[in-house]
């Protein structure tokens, strides 16, 4: 299916990329110099790879979608760390925004032309040194009673763990779409669903129709979620970075009713070639 204008869902499996030090440095050299210290500060190679690929995805996607020359792309971050594109004018995509996520084997990015978009990737890793119940109990204060009951009744310990990560993934995608920081109260959010379709959110006990959510199974050990919603729900620092766009009910409904397509898998080599 042809990609909708301004809508992208890209993902990279970093385990498939085993660069030599020179190859890593060559890929990093494609980025603006101010981006490189944030990559170099990581000690572990996998963490450096995730940080590098996350930035390659951002610049490659903006270059690919908006046709902006790489040296003219200006990506900044809010005080909460949310990346955003500084764009003078783009009538075709009046509120173009994107979000990245990385955990485990995958790094991903999602973009939207009008609505806010949030992406979260989770790795369903078994707890070390504690039971599944003990592990998820550490997060109970971030879950509502309804969510907790759904999780603990999911079945086997593996099913319980997966159920927990589904809720966690959705909460993170919503918060990231808004541009909120780590201090946002995740317990204020409650998700309802029909077998993990028709997912809806209650905020402080009130259901909202301004948001849509989708879950994806990337493989046996990784999940991804997409959150799309009204730009008016962005936190103040992020709202300042966005265009002042009036989103009609028809536009919002059309975006939230559109089917979510699967992610497109990219290799790091494809990303770097598209930037050269």
From TrEMBL:
It comes from Urochloa decumbens. One of its GO terms (molecular function) is holo-[acyl-carrier-protein] synthase activity. Residues 16-113 form the 4'-phosphopantetheinyl transferase N-terminal domain. Its EC number is 2.7.8.7. InterPro entries: 4-PPantetheinyl_Trfase_dom, 4-PPantetheinyl_Trfase_dom_sf, AASDHPPT_N, P-Pant_transferase_sf. This is holo-[acyl-carrier-protein] synthase. Keywords: Transferase. Residues 117-219 form the 4'-phosphopantetheinyl transferase domain.
